[in-house]
Amino acid sequence: MLKIYKYFQIAIERKASDLHLKAGSPPVIRVGGRLIPLAEPPLAYQEMPNLFLPLMDVKSQTDLKQTFEANFMAKYKNRWRVRVCIYMQRGCLSGAFRFIPLDIPSIDNLGLPPILKEIALKPRGLFLVTGPANSGKTHTLASIVNEINRSTSRHVLTIEDPIEFVYKEKKSIFTQREIGVTSSSYQSALMNALREDPDVILVGEMRDVETIEMVLTAAETGHLVFSTLHTVGAVQTIDRIVNMFPGHRHDEIRTQLSMSLIGLISQILLPCIHKKERAMAYELMILNSAMRNMIRERKSNQLKSALMLARKEGCTTLKDSLGEILKDERVDPKLVSNIMKEIVE
Q: Do 18 and 29 contact (CB within 8 A), yes or no?
């Protein structure tokens, strides 16, 4: 058995989401959002290559030599997929590992709003899942795609870097492409995606202008498209997308967004008082005609008010969601209060 599997096993038994290994420090796991050092001796500089290299294929070893980092997926005991990032720091190898269960969570299991099941049934349009790093965006996307697989017969194309959840076909069929392995880039994969007869396209991340542009085009051409962005809040997400383009294109992008965007969920994870769990707070925007006009007419600053007025249509503000968390006492009230103070509605 590989020595690194010992640390994988400890992390999984402790219900950790992540494992960090670096020379000069003991292994560290993240449980419920908190970093916890393991009661193990510090890792030695000379043992790091022996820990990591057995996990790596020729391509990932080449990536490490050429770019000083490598990202790939590994399997552990046929029950877990592990997202691996091996990188150089201070002259030696270090690693970060994210544990992903083979069983795909449902919308209900994650405690997500039931209206996302209706989003999964939409025939076309763009739906975004946003939030900071380590906020559960991948799990939310997977739960929506799993709902599609459970309830409709469609061709679902996923484009990811790397592939995280692997879907077992139920009613839908799946094509899963991985950047750097089965496609050279998001742009290349999206350019060819429209020729592969998909009904649903999942793009792991909108990293640049070209990818955003092609995502908008795919949604406009009659596909249901899902993707992620590292923003918090509906207003910030709209403004971030528009501002990534040069000024002379802002009106064009606003028009495209107003026509193709179905909605978005922006989420954050908060550490619970029970240390092994985290609670999700979210802002959910399902676009109506008033919101579309605001986006098109450069009035995105009015979206907060529109969200509050659209509560009966399923919309939720981040402040509403934090208020519900505060009621059930899962999270330190001081933490929730501090976050609520930062929110301007």
A: yes
Has residue 107 been placed in a domain?
no
Q: What's the pTM?
A: 0.91
Count Cα neighbours of 293 within 13 Å in the Cβ-side half-sphere.
Answer: 4
Q: How many residues comprise the chain?
A: 345
Which of these, 45, 49, 43, 44, lies nearest to 19 by C-alpha position? Answer: 43
* 242 located within any domain: yes
Residues 207 and 67 occupy one common structural domain: no
Question: Tokens 């900071």 sit at which residue?
Answer: 132
Q: Are residues 67 and 161 in the same domain?
A: no
Based on the domain organization, do 68 and 132 belong to the same domain? no
Looking at residue 18, its amino acid is: D
123 with 199, same domain?
yes
Give dist(CA 302, CA 239) in Å, integer: 12
How far apart (Å, rounded) are the C-alpha atoms in residues 317 and 335? Answer: 18
Same domain as 194, residue 93: no
**45-64: pLDDT as tens digits:** 999 999 999 999 999 999 99
Helices then strands (H, E): number in the chain?
A: 13, 13
Q: Give residue-wise pLDDT tens across range 60-98.
A: 999 999 999 999 999 998 889 999 999 999 889 999 999
* Residue 15 and residue 276 in contact, taking contact as beta carbons nearer than 8 Å: yes
Q: Report the Cα–Cα distance between both ends of the chain, in Å, rounded.
A: 54
Domain interval for residue 125: 115-342
- Residues 311, 288: one domain? yes
Token pair listed for 313: 């249509």
Give the separation between CA 201 and CA 223, rounded to whole angstroms: 7
